[in-house]
Design a protein that fits this description.
4 copies of one chain form a homotetramer. Chain A is of the alpha+beta class and about 280 residues long. The first copy, chain A, has 11 helices and 9 strands. In chain A, strands 1, 2, 3, 4 and 5 form a 5-stranded antiparallel sheet that branches. In chain A, strands 6-9-8-7 form a 4-stranded mixed sheet.
């Protein structure tokens, strides 16, 4: 989990000196940051400079917690320690939008935040035949819709509907529902194999989940995590959150296969008509 | 509300002919599309061509409903009518990712989807003084964090935390929680005025909300919309959804003022410590 | 060709009134704009509002000229006419970066600037066999490199090297070399056909070229355009620039086929070694 | 300078094993890569995984050369060495579009390519007064145009016209003109200081320049680099290219001040009329 304060300095020379100071005193800063929590462990501080502005992107492991709160508190203490040693610098905002929390963005996409997870499957030719499609049919939908369509839309979602699965699971398990925004970024990749099977994968660079803290302790949400066998602290710590991240990615994979196949079989509107209207809650 | 199928044609010449055919037969297509629903009214069909691929972005008004379902069904019928008249074209997927549903993207940011709403306020100098800040202090946080930080992150959120407010309201009022992804895109703009007051605005290009259909009829969600005075169909139809969109944007504005001020006053970590820990639900 | 001034107004209400005024007085504004040039014809004015900021994106046809200069002058006169009738608004900058000139961006990618051109070809299976590759081999390079790699890079170039061809032709023919930046945005799409042939297309949404004005009249550059049969004004006006745009796109197509094939045949490094070093100008 | 091949593996498990193998054998791979050139020194190999695809982004220092050629050749040898030890992996393309060469993109923007350079200046209040503007006037143009306008355009150029200066210098000094595309990405940041002065900076994350190799040895281009005092190999090697990068950034800074001031003084159209038409080369 990450937090990136933005700091103002008089000039780019000060910016470089600040970054050098941080690199040279990393262990000191780490001790200060980690004094605020038993679970937050500082991994790295990645600097970004634009003119007389410096972002320091603090990256922590946070055990089984999603960890935004503990990371905010640890970064607050750490950055104030840095600035007390570097009086030419001034804290502008403890969150400088390079963290990046709750916005779709390229930093998390490339460098990760929370867990980076990939889930994959091979669907046998015989199963595809039962569904009335070939591997080529399905991969074509993925190429034209999820890759080409998303390229044209300049989207952070090269996928069909990661967000549906992510939002549902986040609400059900007490995650931060607003973090579904960047947690649902990612890429679906499908390719026909030589034997007629279909390879499918989903890549989620920035899945922000936890099994302790936040809303995970609410009764229903806790029960849901218990059903999945991942409630609370793992043994060793951190393993429950990792296992949960894998479960989420597997569910996302299933969702992608489902919707891309429905499109390949031209069933999307029909399914909405049958299932959406059956509930009598649709206005059409 | 929009839906954009992706269609394969043999060549770019066919692509152009298809687009011309659609333009020439717009009224016919409109009649077919609108035969599926009392509420869906086709406004326009915007074409995009990439090689031998054509996206037709159907844009409808949908009364007080968010309308994704009715638009999917209407587009399905319309695109099949088009293709029955243009046999050289083949439907690849009813949703071609140029709609764009549930992904952050440039199409909705520039061309809109759902409602495009702007909310603004002027905060008097006297109020800012009570809070211990100047208009310049607050605008500086917005410029360095929300504009410069988001520019560097290549983000679709030039804001502090639209997503927190959007996700909360969407869950509380029975909206589609996965649409918080693109509904929370947008820009916060702040500028100090000559008299020391602070101008603040939030711009939400793609806010997808409704007051009928979907989860709006569930008991708690319905009650919440009733409290806001926007449940059900407006008079004339569509006005409840517009009013609700304005309420959401006003809440987003309040959220931005709150967080940017908290950052300017260096209160973010302290607030998390006091309020986050008080609930005993935090893992730190 | 487009130019988009950014205008400040007191509030979003004024912004909407300004846009309404412009829509209602389009013909007047058009007359004023077109009084500055024989060639510039105003097609549309597309508004964008962010808080108390308004961008008016003026779109002109410009005959055979690339037209940036004439459009700047025409927009200057038009926007001043508008503001003289709307004194609550204030011009901040004649170019407000929504034009968009000389930066890669989503506006031109989606809405176009200059010419939007697509070039396509089918490469017969027999030719591919001579080159030692199948259609699948080549399409795989395009899918994994140009689509998937560019998706991950969050690039505006879903292609191999449009920029090499665009930059070379722009310098050779007296175009504005800095406009190679956005003119080289675009997508390469390849698909194997059922008969073993390979379909290839390149889509260039924002190719900014002219055959009169700018550097086209310099001796060598003029000669180059003459060799291509497109120097000067076309008959009717505009046709030379269109023909030239098609020639550029065809060259870009050839460049893509060349490089993607070289990669599929694993020849890139070898070619650089043979040809780059032969010129004795390489430092390795 | 960087080059990033894309490699196909059977599954994500193989992808992780490949990345682990590369990390464990970095020194071996470095020796192989560096055997191809006296100047290319391998700094790091950054991996990116999407499903069963792996990009290995090789980063080298290249002395005073821009170095694309030597890096391509070194990466070719290195990646083949890797694959000879890891037969489950297959090279798809030596350039996998995560390098990223000649396209605007987030990878270079965040992680750099070529040189990352910042240039800054403070313009005294007295000078601004002579020009008839205040620091606030100029900063306002930058905020509304270069930050807000570019945010809305989803641009990689949060600047006025880096590309004009970059393209001109690249052509004049024998650089690769197509690399102006990503070299001209970057951010202009301006802020009024308390004493009425104006702080200005330009940040160029991905400036790809060299003083040996490529077109630098051509007579005119060589003369130009000699005039700047940076032709050929520096002492120690690499210093000429760094000095040249600083010169380019300083020129870009001057260009930004010039154009933003011209806009603040409302002179853009007038300047085009006077200077563009004077040359008799404009078509208006």
């Amino acid at each position: 989990m990450t937090r990136a304060p933005v700091i103002a300095v008089p000039s780019v020379i000060d910016a470089v000196e600040l970054v050098n100071w941080v690199n040279e005193h990393f262990n000191e800063v780490k001790n200060v940051a980690e004094s605020t929590s038993r679970h937050a462990k500082l991994v790295s501080i990645q600097p970004f400079i634009v003119g007389n502005n410096v972002w320091l992107r603090f990256k922590f492991t946070t055990g089984d917690a999603m960890g935004m709160n503990m990371v905010t508190i640890a970064t607050d203490k750490a950055v104030k320690y840095i600035l007390s040693n570097f009086p030419r610098a001034r804290l502008v905002a403890l969150s400088g939008n390079m963290c990046v929390d709750k916005k779709a963005n390229a930093v998390n996409f490339l460098l990760g935040r929370g867990k980076t997870v990939i889930s994959e499957a091979v669907i046998p030719r015989s199963t595809l035949e039962k569904w009335g499609v070939t591997a080529e049919d399905v991969a074509e939908v993925n190429n034209r819709k999820n890759l080409l369509g998303s390229a044209l839309a300049h989207s952070y979602g090269f996928n069909a509907h990661f967000a549906n699965i992510i939002a549902a699971i986040f609400i059900a398990t007490g995650q931060d529902a607003a973090q579904a925004v960047e947690s649902s970024m990612g890429i679906t990749w499908m390719e026909p194999l030589d034997n007629g099977d279909l390879y499918v994968s989903v890549t989620l660079p920035s899945l922000e989940v936890g099994t302790v803290g936040g809303g995970t302790g609410l009764p229903t949400q806790r029960e849901m995590l218990q059903m999945l066998g991942v409630y609370g602290s793992g043994n060793p710590p951190g393993t429950n959150a990792l296992k949960f991240a894998e479960i989420v990615a597997a569910a996302v994979l299933a969702g992608e296969v489902n919707l891309v196949l429905a499109l390949a079989r031209d069933e999307l509107a029909r399914a909405h008509e049958m299932l959406g209207r059956a509930g009598k809650r649709d206005s059409t």
